[in-house]
Amino acid sequence: TKHFPVRRRLRSLLSRTPTVVHAVDDVSIALRRGRVTALVGESGSGKSTVARLLAQLYPRTAGDIRLHGTSTRVRGGRPFRAYVRRVQLILQDPFASLNPVHTVRYHLTRSLRIHGNAGTGPDGLERALADLLTRVSLTPPERYLDAFPHELSGGQRQRVAIARALGANPEVLLADEPVSMLDVSIRLGVLNLLQDLKDRLNLAILYITHDIASARYFADDTIVMYAGRMVEGGDSETVTQRPAHPYTRLLTDSAPDPERITGAGADATGAGERGHGEPPSLIHPPAGCRFHPRCPHAMARCASELPPAIPVDDHPGHWAACWLFDPATVAAENGVAEEA
Ligand code: SF4
Ligand code: MG
């Protein structure tokens, strides 16, 4: 859970007294090595906040983050330090995350040194650098080592950012919209690279995206967020092809084309993040189900009772936080149908 304080000036403009933005509430995710988990939602749904929490960039309001079962509650403690080495964040905009006055060699050397992976002997560092660039298919390495970020294409810069993350020898990659700023023609190449690295290095990957079609293509499991809460989860094929939660159905209806990721019908501006109504204010989130003001199926209880995660169908692990899947609701509906 992460609540951000509202700045005082803004607070004085608000008539009522709440002082926090409920950016993330009760999100619980288990990442496993060798698997990609997609976290899907509109901008403002809290998915990037989840990535930053998992990267330990700021403290959480409540809850815990564990690596192999070990809590990282104590910031700066030994488990915390082990965690931040093992869990690396890749951001949307590689141009912003690389320092323009430094070469590829500088960025990668720094990562290798900080994490104690710079090798030994006179050639150790050179070999480690060449190895990193080869892993992200920037070959021959000599061609890229002394380049500055502006001399590279967007896709090459994102590959450098990935190589820098690999310099830590991580177990987990948190990839926040890693391809949404790239030309559609090169998105697939970067996603394929991540998948390849996942297999070869047995990584756990959290893939954050607003594009649910790409989750089907790229992720084993998919979790959908709405207004700071998880609303549906399960294996990607099921969640994207047989979505249960009314919000996920809205998302899949507005992104029906699985070819978007490869170029057809897509654009690079992230238009998929808009275009289906406004998400609610997270200063005063709606009571009950946060989706109820926009939900075509809303019932009376939806406005007051928060739906828990409810198993959806025969697919193990598929769940939705929606009262439509409450056995009591289902029984009542069937009863009505039988009477009719
Ligand atoms: Fe719609 Fe109610 Fe389900 Fe929320 S709980 S998605 S309002 S039917
Ligand atoms: Mg974001």
TrEMBL record:
A Pfam family: ABC_tran
UniProt-listed SUPFAM superfamilies: P-loop containing nucleoside triphosphate hydrolases
Keyword Transport: yes
Biased composition (Low complexity): 262-271
Keywords, in A-Z order: ATP-binding, Nucleotide-binding, Transport
Keyword Nucleotide-binding assigned: yes
A molecular function GO annotation: ATP hydrolysis activity
Biological processes per GO annotation: peptide transport; transmembrane transport
Annotated stretches, region: Disordered: 236-285
InterPro entries associated with the record: AAA+_ATPase, ABC_transp_ATP-bind, ABC_transporter-like_ATP-bd, ABC_transporter-like_CS, Oligopep_ABC_C, P-loop_NTPase
Domain ABC transporter: from-to ranges: 8-252
Alphabetical list of SMART domains matching this protein: AAA
Alphabetical list of CDD domains matching this protein: ABC_NikE_OppD_transporters
Signal sequence extent: none
Name under which the protein is recorded: Peptide/nickel transport system ATP-binding protein
Record organism: Micromonospora sediminicola
